[in-house]
Amino acid sequence: MTMHKAINSKNTLLKSMYSSGIGYLKRNAGILIGLIALCVIISINSPIFLTQKNLMNVLRQISNNLYLASGMTIILIAGGIDLSVGSNIAVIGVMAGTLLNMGVPIPLVILACLVTGVVIGTINGAIIANTTLPPFIVTFAMLSILRGFAYVYTGGTTVRIDNKAYIAIGTGYLGFIPLPVVYLIVVLLIVYLILNKSRLGRHIYAVGGNEKAAAFSGINIRRIRMFIYIFSGVMAALAGIVLSARSYSGNPVAGDGAEMDAIAAVVLGGTSMLGGYGYIGGTIIGALIIGILSNGLNLMGIDSFWQIILKGIVILVAVYVDYVKNRKKNKT
After folding, report:
1. Cα end-to-end distance, the chain, whole Å
2. How far is the CA of 239 from the CAs of 9, 35, 138, 183, in angstroms?
3. Is pLDDT larger for residue 302 or for residue 43?
4. Residue 173: which H helix or E strand, with range?
5. Are 222 and 130 in contact (CB under 8 A)?
6. Model confidence over 233-291: pLDDT tens digits?
7. Are residues 37 and 295 in contact, defined by beta-carbon separation less than 8 angstroms?
C-alpha cells in the first residue's frame, strides 16, 4: 500500500513537472524561437560562439544583469520601477573596495554591502509606499544621489581591490561553473518560490493587477511596496559585490546604464510594464537574448556603439508588444 502511494505521488509530480514545462514553452514560444535563431546566426558567423569557454563567459556576463532583473521582475509585476539599481552597484563597489583596503574581514564587508542595499531599498520603498510620488521620479532621484555620492567620495578615481579571496567571489569556479552563475541559480530559485509558491507572490500579482481591489481584499499595500524595493536593493548590492570582485576595483562609473539592461530583459521576457503579469522564466530568456546579442556582436567585430542602438530597439519592440497585448486584453 505504501509503495502504491509512493508510485502515485511520483506520477503526480512528473505530471505536474510536465504540465509546467509545456506551459513554460507555450508562454515563451516567441522569444525562445528568437533566442534559437539568434544563436544559429551568431554560430554561423563565429565558430567560437558555441565553445564551452565562451558559453560560460556569456553566463558569467549575464549573471549581473539577471541579479538586477530578478528584483526588477518582482517590481514591474507589482506595478513599480527601480531606476536606482545601476548607481547602487557603483556605491557598493566603492564601499567594498574602501573597507577591504582598511583591512575589514571579507564576511563583514559583504554584510555591510548587503545592509547598504537594504537601506537604499528601504528609503525607496518608504517614500513610494507613504506618498503619491511616482516610483519613476523617486528612484531616478536616488539614481542621481547615489551616483553623485560615488563620484564625490572617490573624486572620480577607481578604488583598487587586491584581496585575492574577495576577487575569487567574482572570478572563481565551482567545477566548471563560474561562481556568479552558482549565486544566480540560488537567486532565481528564491524568486521562483516567492512568485509561484507563496502568499507574498499572490499579493504582489494582485497589487500590480489592481491596487484598489488588492487593498479592499485586505492586502497590506505598503508592506508589499517596502518588500519589493528592499529586495531590489539587495539584488543590486549582490551585483555590486560580484562586479567589483570581477573587475578588481570599485568604480564610480560601474553599473552605468545597468538599470536599462535589466528593464530590457524583464520586458523582453514578457513581464507587463503595467503590472500584474510576468514570470521569472521569461526574464531569464530575455537576459540571455541581450547577453548573447552583445557577445555575438563582439565576436563578429561589430562596433560596440551598435549594441546601444540595438538594445534601444529591443526595448521599444518589447514595450510595443506589451502594449498590443494589453490593448487586446482590454477589448475582450
Report:
1. 49
2. 39, 24, 21, 10
3. 43
4. strand 173-174
5. yes
6. 999 999 999 999 999 999 999 999 899 899 989 988 889 888 999 999 999 999 998 89
7. no
Angstrom distances, CA of residue 77 to CA of 74, 123, 144, 208, 299: 5, 20, 25, 5, 35
Which residue do the cell numbers 508562454 mark?
27
Other CB atoms within a 10 A radius of the CB of residue 130 amount to 11
- Cell numbers linked to 25: 514553452
Nearest to 65 by CA among 290, 219, 278: 290
> What single-letter amino acid sits at 206?
A
| CA-to-CA dists, residue 195 to 16, 79, 212, 277, angstroms | 17, 14, 20, 11
Q: Using CB atoms within 10 A of its CB, is residue 88 exposed (0-12), middle (13-18) or buried (19+)?
A: buried
Contacts of 284 (CB under 8 A, 6+ apart): 66, 188, 269
Answering whether pTM is above 0.85, one says: yes
Q: Which residue, among 275, 236, 295, has the nearest Cα to 91 in the 3D structure?
A: 236
Domains annotated on the chain, with CATH: 31-325 (1.10.3470.10)
Rg of the Cα atoms in the chain:
21
CB of 240 closer than 8 Å to CB of 92: yes
CA distance 200 to 207: 11
The contacts of residue 21 (CB under 8 Å, 6+ apart) are: none
Contact yes or no for 138/232 (Cβ under 8 A):
no
**Main-chain dihedrals φ then ψ at residue 133, nearest 5 degrees:** -65, 135
